[in-house]
Amino acid sequence: MSLLRDADLSAAFDLAAPSYDRMVAANPGYHGQLRRSARRLALPDGGSGLRLLDLGCGTGASTAALLAAAPRARITAVDASAGMLAKARAKSWPDRVRFVHAPAEGLAGAGVTGPFDAVFAAYLFRNVADPDAVLAQVRDLLAPGGRLAVHEYALTGRAAHRTVWTAVCRGVVLPVARRAGNGALYEHLWHSVVEFDTADAFAARLARAGFIRVRTLPTTGWQTGITHTFVARAPAARGGRA
Ligand SMILES: C[S@@+](CC[C@H](N)C(=O)[O-])C[C@H]1O[C@@H](n2cnc3c(N)ncnc32)[C@H](O)[C@@H]1O
């Protein structure tokens, strides 16, 4: 199956936006796992004085997790899908949270400029056409030593985890999604995870992109071995690796 990319992917997310929150509410642990990944940024002092970026914020689930981890920070939340963003904007947020409609590949053009003290990206990277280019941009948007947390479906490479993922998609996710008219997006979800980096490969990708102190952290529940948090830091000096 060819994966959805760019405008086709945004159109599929636009279509799925009205039912997206219901779909994730049926996923045990979805919000708790996002909150744990955001906490893994270990932002000091409730984020006081910090500028944070939530890249691929969707309907705001990851933004809410970031806000819970850093209630005093200023947060810019960006998404390429107008439909997902409309759902996010319709929720209640403090003034310190702002939403921007832009692709991750075109942040500067939408007025999203750094430096950011931390970037959170949940379920984004397996969706972008060129993850290396987006990672390079994220690295450049971060302040020296700035923090990155990526929360992503990235399989371990073990057959058992791949089998669980396929069983969940075939047995639960796809039947529900097809009934809601969103089969194409959730077929993409299934295959994009199978075709994306393993957890080790994504950690290596982060290191190749110049991030330092890269760590891969597990999740619990049915997502064990399927979803991971990747935390890393931007180099302390621009262009440097330490
Ligand atoms: C699976 S949703 C996750 C949303 C949210 N982060 C969460 O945790 O619930 C992925 C989101 O990434 C957005 N997205 C995908 N590719 C993108 C890109 N190239 N630039 C910006 N947003 C993108 C989609 O529109 C979608 O809202």
TrEMBL record:
It comes from the Bacteria. Pfam families: Methyltransf_12. InterPro entries: Methyltransf_12, SAM-dependent_MTases_sf. One of its GO terms (molecular function) is methyltransferase activity. One of its GO terms (biological process) is methylation. Coiled coil: none annotated. The keyword Metal-binding does not apply. Keywords: Methyltransferase, Transferase. Residues 53-148 form the Methyltransferase type domain. This is Methyltransferase. It comes from Streptomyces cinereospinus. The lineage of its organism: Bacteria, Bacillati, Actinomycetota, Actinomycetes, Kitasatosporales.
